[in-house]
Amino acid sequence: MTDARPVLVVDFGAQYAQLIARRVREARIYSEVVPSTMSAKEMLAKNPLAIVLSGGPSSVYAEGAPQVDAALFDANLPMFGICYGFQAMAATLGGTVAQTGLS
Measured between alpha carbons, how far is residue 76 from residues 35, 37, 42 in Å? Predict the structure, then answer.
């Protein structure tokens, strides 16, 4: 166990969550990959420096799609969403996610 505050990479099922964590570590910052099913309370107990919401195969509007616990945003931590992670962040904060119609 380390005393370093981690950057948490929340894994929503994309194959690149490990790659994101590795890139963070290459910047000499401790990181951990955590499942999207982990509660906000458990994540915040790790005292993270920041949280990265990774991508995933779901649509935020699909039944049973993973959600982001709004309590994470109350912690005033830097957060970065990638692909699905950004869509989940927008939806949790009251935004709308829609297709542009462009291909």
Answer: 21, 21, 16
Report whether 46 contacts 6 (CB < 8 A).
yes
Q: What percent of the chain has pLDDT over 90?
A: 76
Residues 6+ apart with CB under 8 A from 39: 69
Give the domains, in start order, of the chain with CATH numbers: 7-92 (3.40.50.880)
Residue located via tokens 């939806």: 91
What type of residue sits at position 35? P
For 56-74, the pLDDT digits (tens) are 888 888 898 899 999 999 9
